[in-house]
Write a structure and sequence with these properties.
about 650 residues; alpha+beta
Length: about 650
């Protein structure tokens, strides 16, 4: 391996590398996230000719021969291996109907990112009619735009009459990673960290406090139904309307759809502050436009939709938020995971970025004549076709996902909603209202100076209303009745109440009152452990232990009760491990994170853990004979005691 070239891992590669370790539980096979594309050959070519072109791709693009692993210190790195000659891993004679089976064969064997070649090839030959090349790669090696670059270069290599070189100048992922980690980019890295830190300290816990994870995966041959419903809206008129609004407001069409989505999101969630994850190509640099690698990353778009905002203000606000988010969309996902955990711990919440938006341009339909107003006798929304669409997601990655895809036949708005927060009927009404909003902006039937609240009501956006026990605290809706009920579950607690209280600086905090033989520290630790089953729970900021419950269980009544002890509940001294599971977890952390206090009352990351080392900790536990957690369990708000409680001895410890 003397010819191997080493570099830090590209930030776009980090996320998919880490997912390799986050299998549902030990016993399931680890595997990389894989993506597949098929390239059509319209004429018969010799196998050697096709293989030579594929081998040329491997020689040209370092990403197709890169492994992803950790160095001795635990730092994620990429290792660019020497070129290799391609051989087909699957070969068949058939037609297009054989593509799914061949694709499945290519992907059946798990990829190990540290050792395996990151790409595999297969050929389906249809005698006399050409062939299909099937390519499967791990996502750390390629992103969506890379496939376009690869296919263009591959077909150019096979074209004997080409009048342009097959390869365009491009920067390799290794070179980009070295640049990103260089001293000259230090100020940019700090600005990025400041942007994300500020957002993590000011966004809601989640857009939908009703979110509850569903059982997903595959269990002894049984696959539960997907916890999502999906509805799609198709329209040609809407595509033209969005482009007219974009031209009038001098913003990209994707911003127009996102602004309409923001109007929907604020109504559906009941929260003015909208938080949306949006994939960004990160290819503004000309040397990256023809590069092959995983450069894209999710940008974090945050904006408010207030009742008094006008449509004009919303469009401008969303545009500015998108520009800012894309400016800071090149970041270490591992480091930002640590920032999120620290901010969540300080705020007493498990921060969840559960809303995603993506805008895809496949093709542009031919333009209609831009009307000066709505057509006579018909509405521009008459061509809306809204249908329930199939869904096969088997995860809990999103609360709500909107994909907008433009093509030669118009635009498709496809919305996936988690069944714990919405349903197909509400999604359908939301899509229709979004479409009507954009059309109204385009034909001026909805004045841009009208207040958004009245526009939302006029168009019938579904609205989330909260009951009397709900309060808005720290940009997050909190069910104080649920908080009080959970406090009362702690052994010995005979009465409890949770209420909002104004702080000296004009803000609001949650104050928890309880009666029983307990302390503020025990109350907070108990509530933190509840987040295992209820991740949207927000912890109170202050805990008061009272001698007895008031006659009237109101805030005023509790405030007059005799106080035994009070405090923020945060531990002032490290809590040592006591159970075998806690001692095993503490030993694993100490071995891989020198200096970590292994405080059982504090989460792994806020206490000084590193995201990249979490897989080593869980591997250590598995070798020590414990199962039950994956690396992600170490990255959230749970105190280590709650994480250790999920461990189960296997009785199969092996020498380390």
């Amino acid at each position: 391996m003397n010819d191997t070239r080493w570099a830090p891992m590209l930030w776009g590669q980090e996320h998919y590398w880490f997912l390799y370790f986050d299998v549902p539980a030990y016993g399931a096979d680890r595997d990389c996230v894989k993506i597949t594309r098929t390239w059509r050959l319209d004429k018969d070519l010799a196998d050697d000719t096709v293989l030579a072109a594929l081998s040329a791709l491997v020689r040209q693009y370092e990403s197709l021969r890169t492994n992803f692993l950790q160095d001795e210190s635990g730092r994620p790195v990429q290792a660019v291996r020497p070129p290799w000659e391609v051989a087909f891993e699957a070969y068949a004679e058939g037609d297009a109907s054989d593509i799914p089976a061949v694709t499945e064969r290519l992907a059946a064997r798990a990829f190990d990112p540290a050792q395996d070649r990151p790409v595999r090839f297969a050929l389906i030959r249809e005698p006399g009619k050409g062939a299909w090349v099937v390519v499967t790669a791990i996502h750390s090696a390629v992103d969506g735009q890379s496939w376009t670059v690869l296919e263009r270069a591959f077909l150019a290599l096979l074209d004997d009459e080409r009048d342009a070189p097959p390869f365009l100048p491009a920067r390799e992922p290794r070179e980009q990673a070295e640049l990103d980690h260089s001293a000259e980019k230090a100020r940019y890295r700090e600005r990025v960290r400041a942007y994300w830190r500020d957002r993590y300290l000011t966004i809601p816990q989640g857009m939908f406090p009703d979110y509850r994870p569903a059982p997903v995966g595959h269990f002894n041959g049984y696959t539960p139904p997907s916890p999502y419903e999906r509805v799609a809206l198709r329209s040609r008129a809407l595509s033209f309307a969005a482009e007219r609004v974009a031209a009038q407001r001098k913003v990209p069409p994707g911003v127009v759809y996102l602004a309409a989505f923001g109007a929907a999101l604020s109504s559906l969630s009941g929260n003015e502050r909208c938080v949306v994850s949006m994939d960004t190509a990160n290819r503004a640099d000309p040397l990256l436009s023809a590069a092959v690698g995983c450069f894209f990353q999710p940008a974090l778009v945050v904006f408010d939709v207030t009742a008094k905002d006008t449509s004009e203000a919303l469009l401008s606000k969303v545009f500015r938020a998108v520009v800012a988010a894309q400016r800071y969309a090149r970041y270490s996902s591992l480091e930002m995971t640590e920032e999120r955990a620290r901010a969540g711990h300080a705020r007493g919440m498990n921060l969840r970025i559960g809303v995603t938006y993506n805008y895809f341009v496949q093709a542009q339909p031919e333009h209609d004549a831009a009307p000066s107003g709505p057509p006579d006798g018909a509405g521009a929304t008459d061509d809306f076709v809204i249908d329930k669409a199939p869904i096969d997601w088997q995860d809990n990655s999103a609360d709500l996902y909107l994909a907008v895809e433009t093509g030669k036949d118009g635009v498709v708005l496809s919305m996936h909603g988690h069944t714990s927060v919405t349903n197909a009927d509400r999604i359908a009404r939301t899509l229709r209202a979004m479409g009507a909003l954009i059309v109204g902006w385009a034909d001026s039937t909805l004045p841009l100076d009208a207040a958004m609240r009245s526009v939302q009501d006029q168009l019938g956006f579904p609205r989330r209303e909260f009951g009397p026990h709900w309060v808005l605290v720290d940009h997050t809706w909190v069910d104080t009745g649920e908080c009080a009920a959970r406090l009362a579950e702690l052994g010995g607690v005979t009465a409890a109440g949770v209420f909002p209280d104004e702080t000296p600086d004009g803000g609001t905090r949650l104050v928890a009152y309880a009666v029983g033989p307990t302390t503020p520290d025990e109350l907070r630790e108990h509530m933190a452990a509840v987040q295992v089953d209820q991740p949207s729970l927000v912890l109170p900021h202050w805990y008061v232990v009272c001698a007895e419950a008031p006659d009237t269980p109101s805030f005023e009544g509790w405030a007059e009760a005799a106080v035994v002890a009070e405090g923020d509940g945060l531990p002032h001294h490290p809590v040592p491990p006591r159970t075998p599971q806690e001692r095993a977890l503490a030993a694993a952390i100490r071995d891989h994170c020198p200096g970590h206090p292994s405080d059982m009352a504090t989460p792994y990351l806020p206490a000084g853990g590193r995201t990249a080392l979490a897989p080593r900790v869980t591997d250590h536990l598995h070798a020590a004979g414990f199962t039950g957690i994956v690396p992600a369990d170490l990255l959230g708000p749970l105190p280590l005691r709650a994480v250790a409680a999920k461990l189960t001895p296997t009785g199969t410890a092996r020498k380390q």
